[in-house]
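Z., the sequence and structure:
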Amino acid sequence: MISTRNIFSSACIAFFLLIFFTGFSACTDDIVSTNPKYNITFSKDTVSFDTVFTTLGSATLKLLVYNRNNVALKISHIGISGGQNSPFRINVDGSISADNQFKDIEIRAKDSLYIFVAVTVDPTNSNSPAFIEDSIRFETNGVSKSVKLQAFGQDMILLKDKYVLNDTTLTGKKPYLIYGHLAIDTAKTLTLEPGTKLYFHNNANLLVYGNLKAEGTAENPILMRGDRLDKIKFETPVPYNYIAGQWGGVYLLWKGGNHVLKHVNMNSGYVGVYFSNSDRNQLPNLTISDCRIHNFLLYGLVVQNGNVTVTNTEISNTSSYSVYLNGGKHTFIQSTIANYFSSFIPSTTRDKKPAVMIMELNRVAPMETTFKNCIISGSAENEFSLASKFQAQYKGVFDHCYIRTAAKLTLPQFTDIRWYAAKDTLFKNNYFDVEKGKYYNFTPDSVSPARGLADPAIISQYHLEYDLNGNLRDNEPDAGAYEWVPTKK
């Protein structure tokens, strides 16, 4: 018979051995080694910032310091080489130091340490970005290691709640950073020269109570976008420039306005161009050519009681209407309206509105609409809607276009239309995959039904021999703003 006392004694021995070895292991983990063979590693060898506007602080980037050893380590020194004069600043495990220097920081075995890095760049007195660099030095058990710090500093001109009372010209020499609003007074003209870059802070707007002349070139387009140059921290970081709602929009608000947008790229605000007028008897004019209006949280182009001509332009990806037309004469030639909006923000989704909405139900100025050689498509079942009391009598011409609707329209205004079919492969890429580095590309696919659909006579009439990418259109041109070209081998 086995003695109960022996079982109890064996259990006690096992228990005390467990306690002994666990305690010994814990003590081993806490032993700080001074052996040079034990050292630290890093999550990256270089902390790189995107372009940073001078005098404004950057976003904060993270660096992880690892102790992958079975013993604790003491980092005798952590510091930025440039000391307190460096444009870079570090926060080590929740602590800051005026001179960017830290001493005797312990890391337990198999543990890590967080270092947060920020940068503020002094004015460089240069029109071009200036390269800024420094390093974080680490001293552990007599062994020195370092991590590089890099950034580009860009001088800018700050415009905060600026109301312009006279004709004014902005140049492309330095970017402009807009807080609140930039507004132009009634009957005055704001001119944007080729290469002008407008960076808008959160909710900032361009308010035009006069005229806007934004005329860029293919080589030096005009840019309008948000001021966040860093990335939003998802599982795979995404540039803020890809997130809609980073700024307000462009509002053209004078009934006597005469506006030109040429080679303008604008993206990722709330509204692209809001062209609005309450006077049915006096209609302002807007010409949009060779532009890209992309990724807006509400609308791309809204026209209310105004005359607009849009050529060779992409208007794409909005959570509601991409184009809304209500009152006036509206002409769209060789343009792509594509709504495949999706957002990385879970609460932001696309509503059920079509990409193009033509509304003649309200008391507005007489309407007349022309779409030729255009693409109207998107991810919804119906991307085109004509709301008129008497559709068959509506003054509209829709010719040589690709249109996605739930059912073909048999109205007399529609001629030579290629209607959507379920198996169509329309564009090269109508989605964004951050992990694969794919972004929207609304160039027709090689098998796209938009290929060869355009009327060459319309291209000649409007002098649109080159597409929005600068490619020469061939004798059988494609509908939309882009011409398919074979891949170069």
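The first helix runs from residue 4 to 30. Residues 155-462 form one domain.

Let me know what you think.
H.
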